[in-house]
Amino acid sequence: xxxxxxxxxxxxVWGAALFPLALLLCKFATDDLGVNPIDYVTRTLGDWTLRIxxxxxxxxxxxxxxxxxWQMTLRxxxxxxxxxxxxxxxxxxIVLDHFFDWPQMIADIFKRPYITVGMAALTLLVPLAxxxxxxxxxxxxxANWRRxxxxxxxxxxxxxxxxxxxxxxxxxxxxxxxxxxxxLLSIRLGDWTRRFAKRRLQRAAASKRExxxxxxxxxxxxxxxxxxTAGIVPPAGGQALRLGRPAPEIAGAPWINSPPLTLSxxxxxxxxxxxxxxx
Amino acid sequence: xxxxxxxxxxxxEITDFTLYLxxxxxxxxxxxxxxxxxxxxxxxxxxxxxxxxxxKRNEAFLVDDPPTKLESVTTYNNxxxxxxxxxxxxxxxxxxKPRPWTVQVDGxxxxxxxxxxxEIMRFGPLExxxxxxxxxxxxxxxxxWIGYPLASLIKRVEPTSKARFVEFTTLRDLEQFPGxxxxxxxxxxxxxxxxxxxxxxxxxxxxTLLTFGLYGQVLPNQNGAPVRVVVPWKYxxxxxxxxxxIRFVSDQPKTTWEKAxxxxxxxxxxxxxxxxxxxWSQATERRIGEFRRRKTLMFNGYADQVASMYAGxxxxxxx
Lengths: 279, 319
Hints:
The structure holds 2 protein chains of 2 kinds. In chain A, α2 packs antiparallel against α9, α3 crosses α10 and α7 packs across α8. Chain A is elongated and about 120 Å long. By secondary structure, chain A is mainly α. Chain A contains 11 helices and no strands. Chain A has one domain. Chain B has a single domain, classed as Sulfite Oxidase, Chain A, domain 2, CATH 3.90.420.10. Chain B is 18% helix and 21% strand. Chain B is globular, with a radius of gyration of 19 Å.
């Protein structure tokens, strides 16, 4: 992907991600936020937090399913926008909804399960946003960084639970988010189990190979022993043949289809020795 | 078969003052419609024009705070029969046909009868009362209702000594109430028809209003036309809308929300800042049109009139 295409793609994501906020501001300016504006703004920001979070979680499944990878560069941008909307959602809750009524809000965080999980999701997003820079990736080391950013799965689950637990009966939207998250996570789970199975197979194959090698080693040892013994005990009635020693001169054989060959003449050539007999 | 008579003065001949005051919003609406560049706004069926309803204001039932804007009252409310979102009722209100309409009054009464709604409307002098309305979700309004005390109707049908509760049933009609149709995978938001109930003494309490109108107008469809009850010291869902049956019974009725979530919506559901909804606090509320939350009042500010009915009761248990 060329640099220009990548920039255009990121510009598009910026525009798309900021559009809901622009729409809210526009509605605010024209006094079009409805009968219960604070409720409307809170819900809209919460909705977009989840949507963008799920969008960031769908980049890898897209790669796994379709083998495309140009979208992988958008993960960081989408993740940061999810954090941005979550922070706005939280700020509206503090400022507009409760107007800094800290005792009430803190009590709610501990007492109301949907607020507890929402707060947990936002808290967990903070380290991910803080370590989103390339420099932090380097500083943490790729493996550590990846391990830390696995938190995003927990955040997704907590975020959807937050919506599921606050919604009143008959409202189906949170279930759609749950289904979407379920699909995205199960695609990954499928990939993990496949990879895990593959690794196990590889390990099994490796251990099999190792077994063969051990047998080979034993055989080699036995052969070597035999060879050494053979070397030490000279065959009766013949000249001693030793490894690393010059071979004895070929003598005593009738030459059939060539003049007699000498060792000095063969020196430096490849010699194929074929043993055969006839009878 | 009931023959409907026209009232002596045709209500359509009188322009109500509040309607007069609202003329600007009608004009703005008309202008917006005229200026709308695309089709949908024009193509959508417009709700029937509201008929004025004459009633004398009862000065004994006023609220210090200003009433909530009519537009808010008629465009933001819960009426699951139309849908679960708060703009569904106003959007789909045209599907309900509030006339002809009958109300069956039966059960443990000496004179059970099925009335035409126009007949019931004449059982008491209609009066305007300004009440607070507190929704269980944490928002509230101030609404000038038009009706008469439910007690007037109850006395007319003479409940027997065995009658201890009153059950209100809302119309069940999948054509008129699209929210009652089974949705995806046949999931329904609630068990239909919608059933609510009151203890007989609660139903007889002078605050309990059999309601036919609001803001000087006939009840808009989305607010429970043609007849509903308003029980101002209880959370809004206790006030049944579009009622087709009022039944007197000896046992506590199983109400719709109680069936849906028994740990969240009890039979009493009195407004009580000290008893939380399991999922959220009820200590404060947002009055529609205001910025800051305000403290919720015990029995929604009607403690003087109703607290004695619950003397000695554990209100945490009887939520």
